[in-house]
Amino acid sequence: MVQSDYDLLVEMGFDAQRAKLAVNKTKGLQDAIEWLDKNQDNPIEELDGSTSTEQALGATSASTSGSLDADGDKAETTGTAASLKCMDCGKLFSSPERAEFHATRTEHTNFEESTEVIKPLTEEEKKAKLAELREKLAAKRAAQASIDQQDAKKNEAIRRKKTQDTEKLKEDLRKKEQLKEAEKRKREKLEDAQAKERVRQQIKETQEARRLQAEREKALREGRAVQDTPPTASKPQQPKVTASHSESRLQLRLPSGPPLIKTFPVETTLFEVASAIESERGFAPSTFTVTFPRKVFQQGIDFGLTLKEAGMVPSCALIVG
Fold first, then answer.
1. pLDDT tens by residue, 257-311
2. Is the dihedral of CA 60, 61, 67, 71 positive or negative?
């Protein structure tokens, strides 16, 4: 159970009313100790500064024949109870409030009235109590500093993990964008090649029509009969029968170390092959080179191609750059 500053002051033997004033008039346990030490000779009425307190104290003094002792309790006459004693631990208390606080803190419940008078603390005892209290305060502050340091380390670890997760997400997004860009460039290259092929076909047809027209005009000038020769339809090419392969076996020759031989599905992109090499060997490829016929596949341009589209099926040897 964590003790408050007021509880610590009362436990060390200070008057409960003075301890309460010290806690209310200061900020922190150290200031309260210094305030009690500075005002130990001043009467409680002057420290409190409340007329109601003075009247209450005056009424109490008028109604009793005795006087207050150093602890602020009424002086006991001989043969009457002068204190309350905890039978569980043997401590003496000058007032029911202190006994109640002790019971709350320790859960002790066995109290009896006692004729033993609680002696006030001497100056030496007070100084010793203050020194002990300062040591407890220093230990408390050191423990709190250690807790704060541990919390700061945990917060820093959380911050670093968040940063790493953010960077990973950014890297994944960059790779996806790179794949999209590679697919776009591949599509644009295919469309451009198809457009060029259409233009070449149109040029070829125009040249053939001009040649036939020139032959007809020549035949007319020479008085020969003109024979219209229908254009010969090109025979459709028979599709090549190729074996169906679902995997491709690649021999990857890296700048250092032995070759890496791996098998991938034919639909694996060159970008995924590069990621597998980086994961296994720690080397990030930027190019793949086929030796014969020599062809270079570059990152950001050709890495969106699958192994099947790149002609690397059923097997291929690649120089990794």
1. 888 898 999 899 999 999 999 988 888 999 999 987 788 999 888 888 999 888 8
2. positive
